[in-house]
Amino acid sequence: xxxxxxxxxxxxxxxxxxxxxxxxxxxxxxxxxxxxxxxxxxxxxxxxxxxxxxxxxxxxxxxxxxxxxxxxxxxxxxxxxxxxxxxxxxxxxxxxxxxxxxxxxxxxxxxxxxxxxxxxxxxxxxxxxxxxxxxxxxxxxxxxxxxxxxxxxxxxxxxxxxxxxxxxxxxxxxxxxxxxxxxxxxxxxxxxxxxxxxxxxxxxxxxxxxxxxxxxxxxxxxxxxxxxxxxxxxxxxxxxxxxxxxxxxxxxxxxxxxxxxxxxxxxxxxxxxxxxxxxxxxxxxxxxxxxxxxxxxxxxxxxxxxxxxxxxxxxxxxxxxxxxxxxxxxxxxxxxxxxxxxxxxxxxxxxxxxxxxxxxxxxxxxxxxxxxxxxxxxxxxxxxxxxxxxxxxxxxxxxxxxxxxxxxxxxxxxxxxxxxxxxx
Length: 424
Hints:
Elements lengths: L8 H8 L8 H7 L2 H16 L8 E2 L15 E7 L5 E7 L7 E7 L11 E3 L10 E2 L3 E5 L5 E6 L1 E2 L8 E6 L13 E4 L8 E2 L5 E7 L20 E7 L7 E6 L4 E10 L5 E7 L2 E7 L23 E4 L5 E6 L10 E8 L7 E10 L1 E8 L5 E7 L6 E7 L1 H6 L8 E7 L12
Antiparallel strand pairs: 1-5, 2-3, 3-4, 4-5, 6-9, 7-8, 8-10, 10-11, 12-13, 13-14, 14-15, 16-17, 17-18, 19-20, 20-21, 21-22, 23-24, 24-25, 25-26
């Protein structure tokens, strides 16, 4: 993710000043001690950050305003299957930037064709002094068959607090799906789906970035510093409420993007994105405390999102970059691997896409065992959101063998005019 600059503090302070400046205000600032000036600036930026606490609106009739000919960017976020077989895909439009917003589409023929955008979450407003972004999240079908849309909302790229929001659809296979109003779960961002533990608890990974906010927001929420890290939240009442259970802190984290699987011995294995690639930690008390992070033996990954999950067979699925488990050449050669021993060793290496500029895998497994992985290609130019459909046998054979298996299936492509290149 990129970090963008903010409007000058002086301009923002002027826009947010309440009430209108009095003639004596200029003189007051001229004689104000530096510490008081800084306190005023902090107060202004904190008020701006509070604009991200306003509940966003779900646009369930986004066409034609958000049709493909109006979009110019594509970064995949999540894909999910509903009880009757409909596929939902979610991706970021606008940019990996403060301009970001969410677009959702569906497929009723197992991913062969896709609808026009069916839902958009765009929190931007001309009334705001800066951008309010909807940047990362995911889709998840819970054990009751409800479809969850989970996403973050922040001022600019990251205001130091942000916030995880969720909307739930009770009838995701209907002609006109109905969504609940978004509700805020906690601070931070979520990029990956919840999992259901053997205890019946639902566990949701939430990242509260260890950086304190970007630009003028840096240091705004010092009270949250003890909570920063790769958090896990647990629900014991089917998502009605969520409680923070614990967090791991990684050296040189890069958005965390952490995923958790429960091992056969009941321990939790967390993998996270860092400046070194993938790092790991484990918890033996349900996520309350975590071991010192280490590099997972034999797994090498660029600074990029990966995907790991427990399959119905009991094997673990890992989707990473590179045609070798212990090597990579950047965001090239997205590949799938299987482990029968809870991640100690891996087999397979099916190449899902050999091209450059591919990233951000997410996926699920259908009741018949088929695995679905979505990802993006060349976000700012081609902006394609793609789908790979394959089986465990394909992974072990390192080639497509199943009758339903298919690679490089197109979910979406932005057709709007691309921004003019900047002169260097």
